[in-house]
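Cast an eye over this sequence plus tokens and walk me through the fold:

***
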Amino acid sequence: MKNLLLAALGLTFVAGVTPALAANDCPAGGTIHFGVEPYESNAILLPIYHKISEQISTAVGCPVELQITTSYNAEIEAMRNGKLEIGEFGPLGYVLAHKVADAQAVAAFANSKGEPSTYTASVVTWPGSGITTLKQVAGHTFVYSDPASTSGHLFPAYALQSAGIDPNTGIKPIFAGSHTASYEALVNHKVEAGELNSQTIQAAQIHNNWDPKAFVTLWKSKQIPLDPICVWGKLKPALKTKLTDALQHLKLNDLTPDEMKVVGTSSGELVPQTDAAYDQIRSLVHVLHIDLSKMNG
């Protein structure tokens, strides 16, 4: 049975299956709650993660409730309050969630080699903006996605600081709320520069909404580890083990090739991921003097 409803955290689906395991193997209340940060629009994410939720449900034998949260921090708070057993966090969101919500990275979407996928961040403008170099971004309107976004905030802020621009006061910052919203602000020339990551580009290509001539790339990052799929550290050991095993070997057979591009997998599967993969994110947090506690406030 599939129920669509609006929950306090955001749009929610419930994927139910005939339980393959005893009811007491499922969490209290019988349902596993799976949170996903709103890195793209709900119209893009819901169909994809509904399918993934059904496949998780089949693998573990418990109903899975999907929650596309209203913000990155809303997902972190939900896990901290014991309302999520599973969560997909952006790399920066994960570093914070690991610290305050006991999120534990166990899996990630895989590339064609069966390894955890990566992606890139960039700083762009548009032809005619008057900006041709990264240093010239100073003093102009600049769109970030979300304060807890890796490619939408952390890496662009690092790029600006490296160019001698204060990423908070050296520009006129705007937080759009998602990568899709950032992209639309840039396409429609609502801002003069901003963040654009490789996943957003792929999503735009899939929907025939990508014109490379519409952007001028001013800076591009090295490869960044993709979002980890996490389990809540306070789960009962048996349930944590069951979920970890299922997530690390999940085959995403129901996703279309375009849907696989959106989530960042070319092999159509999840593979094991470790907490240590995100140490480079922690290093940038230190370099930029980011106070994680304020991000979660």
Remarks:
- The longest strand covers residues 103-109.
- Residues 121-221 form a domain with the D-Maltodextrin-Binding Protein; domain 2 fold (CATH 3.40.190.10).
